[in-house]
Write a structure and sequence with these properties.
five-stranded mixed beta sheet; six-stranded mixed beta sheet; 14 helices; 26 strands; about 500 residues; alpha+beta
């Protein structure tokens, strides 16, 4: 059974996809403490707040022919990076092909105002990755204003289904006529397989209206300016995660559930009946025992069912995953033991990569296998586990040393970077939880305390730097907690607490 759980908390919105009681996907976006200048509170945050999908009017600051790229001011802390491939739609050079693609200087010049979209969040010292070939996603289709024609999600198969969907897409363009964007193209999403022609046309019309608003905004804006922001986390979850096989959508906040129902009425009426309001007892994620597992996603070791484990360690260049058998031994021999452990590891690696947001190069050190058929069995399980992801990936053959290289598109910082930081007291040889993450844990615990003792005052004792963060965002924190039923909260700094330690109790 597939369930979507939405915890619309005071400090952040967290979304969990649970299948048969097991956490399969996790997303979160912070809603307080986002100190990001120009676009603060408008979707351009950091520390877990993604800006992928935002369309901005930017100004080209530098063009670097040697890099075949340009840097564009879009109002963030660092200029965005626009490569020649992502800028080619701006070149007035009809008929070019891959062998004669335009150079960056033929696409943009310094000082140009250009419309761009964020395709990768800022990470570390790097600014956002940008594209001039903007798109607007809908429930069933994605509008591509600069590229005519119909394309399909790579998840739509077999060939007969693809042929039928291509023909249906052409019919949408033909029958939609002037109500749609002239000359635009569409990518049909997996959800479109079960949709009718009228459903697809309605979705295309909503996308056309969104694009018209972008064009109107562009006429009146001065760069840098935000012209389009993707849906909020609740609506985006419904659009991207909820399918016909989703049994329930459980939401723990009254305002969030009303927003979800309103979106369903507009875009996916068949899903509204599956929305349920969670009103206790306790907290939503606690009911599914998710909190400990989420906390463990920054820990390197992950247990396997047989008693073995995998260890996940990140470096600047790559992520290394080591497979260990522990004390498990298969009675039938070493090869069978290795196959069993490797198979369990292959299935778990895909899940951990999704949950932790790991991207770039990943190297897995499997236990040695002598039989080629067993090697292929493990690789097939690894591919199947990774294929449940929406992010593109590639898996290389296993080397003679048992190493498998995986590449996964990097779209945002991994979870461990968002939730932890280098430990200066140990010469950066380890990591510790960030004070922001501890503060968010405090806020969640305050919500729990208020649920358990309605109307009572709540007192928090925590490390000084955590209390400093809470007080620095005091108006936001107290306002958000009041909306969640915790109207009276006080914070006390106490040097006896380590950063990750705190105590939350009720008074009276």
């Amino acid at each position: 059974m597939k369930e979507v759980l939405i915890n619309a908390g005071a400090a952040e919105t967290r979304v969990a996809l649970v299948e048969d009681g097991k956490l399969e996907e996790l997303f979160f976006e912070r809603v307080i403490g986002l100190d990001d200048g120009l676009f603060r509170r408008r979707g351009a945050g950091r520390q877990g707040h993604s800006i992928v999908g935002n369309i901005m009017l930017g100004r080209v600051k530098r063009v670097l022919p040697a890099m075949q790229a340009a840097f564009v001011d879009v109002g963030l802390a660092r200029a965005g990076f626009l490569g020649a491939r992502e800028a080619r739609c701006l070149a007035d050079l009809p008929g070019f092909d891959e062998a004669h693609a335009p150079r960056i200087g033929q696409c943009v010049r310094e000082g140009d105002e250009i419309l761009v979209q964020v395709i990768k969040d800022p990470m570390g010292e790097k600014g956002a990755r940008l594209s001039a070939n903007v798109t607007i996603p809908g429930r069933l289709a994605v509008l591509v204003p600069n590229t005519p024609g119909i394309a399909l999600s790579r998840r739509i198969e077999p060939d007969e289904a693809r042929a039928r969907m291509l023909a249906l897409g052409e019919t949408v363009i033909r029958e939609g006529g002037a109500r749609l964007v002239p000359g635009a193209g569409y990518i049909l999403r997996t959800a479109a397989i079960e949709a009718s022609l009228s459903d697809l046309i309605d979705d295309a019309e909503r996308l056309a209206e969104a694009w018209r608003q972008v064009l109107v905004g562009r006429k009146n804006a001065e760069p840098p300016a935000l012209l389009y922001q993707d849906l909020d986390p609740v609506e985006r979850t419904l659009r991207d995660l909820v399918r016909a096989d989703t049994a329930r959508i459980v939401i723990d906040d009254a305002a969030a559930i009303e927003a979800a129902r309103a979106y369903c009425r507009r875009a996916m009426p068949d899903a509204e009946s599956r929305i349920e309001f969670f009103n206790g007892p306790g907290a939503l994620f606690d009911q599914y025992d998710l909190e400990d597992e989420i906390h463990g996603l920054v820990q390197p070791r992950v247990a396997l069912p047989s008693g073995g484990w995998i260890t996940i360690e990140a470096t600047e260049a790559l992520t290394a995953i080591d497979v260990n058998s522990g004390s498990f031994t298969e009675a039938s021999g070493l090869e069978e033991t290795s196959l069993r452990i490797n198979s369990e590891a292959a299935e778990e690696i895909g899940r951990q990569v999704r949950l932790r947001g790991i991207g770039g190069l990943i190297v897995v050190d499997f236990i040695h296998l002598a039989e080629p058929t067993n090697v292929e069995t493990v690789l097939e399980r690894l591919r199947k586990s990774l294929s449940r992801d929406h992010t593109p990936f590639e898996v290389a053959p296993m080397s003679s040393l048992g190493l498998v290289e995986i590449t996964r598109k990097r779209v945002r910082d991994p979870l461990f970077k968002l939730m932890s930081e280098g430990c200066h007291s140990c010469a950066s040889s380890g990591r510790k939880i960030t004070r922001d993450s501890v503060a968010l844990s405090v806020i969640r615990q305050v919500e729990r305390a208020a649920l358990g003792a309605p109307g009572k005052a709540v007192k928090v004792r925590a490390a000084p730097d955590v209390v400093d963060w809470l007080e620095a965002h005091g108006d936001e924190v107290r306002g958000a907690l009041a909306r969640r039923g915790a109207g009276r909260v006080s914070f006390e700094a106490n040097d006896a607490y380590a950063r990750e330690g705190f105590d939350v109790g009720t008074l009276g």
